[in-house]
Design goal:
Number of strands: 6
Number of helices: 3
Strand content: 35-45%
Strand order of the largest sheet: 1-3-4-6-5
Number of domains: 2
Mean pLDDT: 80
CATH topology of the largest domain: OB fold (Dihydrolipoamide Acetyltransferase, E2P)
Low-confidence stretches: 119-132, 140-154
Order of helices and strands: EEEEHEEHH
Largest sheet: 5 strands, mixed, barrel
Structural class: mainly beta
Shape: globular
Length: 162
């Protein structure tokens, strides 16, 4: 049998606060709903917008971190696999669920956005001079490479691995 490949990568915003529960063996499991926007032009050339709401399951300590630092509207990057499972409802009918089981969740929001979520979170340092936010672009850009620690913003091109 040929080896398969199942990889899902989502970037979007949380549609609601993370919901965390614990298994009988005390393992945390978080349920997230990631809203992913997409645009296209219809046959008349008008731009159409639509959001897909993708259910995501996160396990272990990462689930607890999601509960601690993420709220409705938080920007996230989720890497994982697609899972389809089924169960029998109380009415006796078979129900199917398709979801992404996260292998990694990257928090894309700024520390300033997270300050209200955790009291022990350190204060956000001032943004570096020359960042896109400093130049009047506001928060339109989820991540500004000039704000990443260790990256020098001296007008030189950065080596990008792709």
């Amino acid at each position: 049998m040929a080896r398969g490949f199942n990889k899902a990568i989502l970037m979007g915003n949380l549609a609601r606060d993370p919901e965390v529960r614990y298994t009988t063996s005390k393992q945390a499991v978080a349920k997230l709903t990631v809203a992913v926007n997409r645009q296209w032009k219809n046959k008349d050339g008008e731009v159409q917008d639509q959001a897909d709401f993708i259910p995501v399951v996160v396990w272990g300590s990462q689930a607890e971190n999601c509960e601690k630092y993420l709220r409705k509207g938080s920007s996230v990057l989720v890497e994982g696999r697609i899972q389809v499972r089924n169960y029998e409802a109380t009415t006796g009918e078979r129900r199917w669920i398709t979801e992404v089981v996260a292998q990694g969740v990257t928090f894309l929001g700024t520390r300033k956005e997270s300050e209200g979520f955790s009291q022990d979170h350190e204060q956000d340092p001032a943004p570096r001079a020359g960042s896109l936010r400093d130049k009047g672009f506001g928060d339109e850009f989820v991540m500004d490479i000039s704000e990443v620690d260790g990256v020098k913003d001296e007008g030189e091109d950065a080596d990008i691995p792709f």
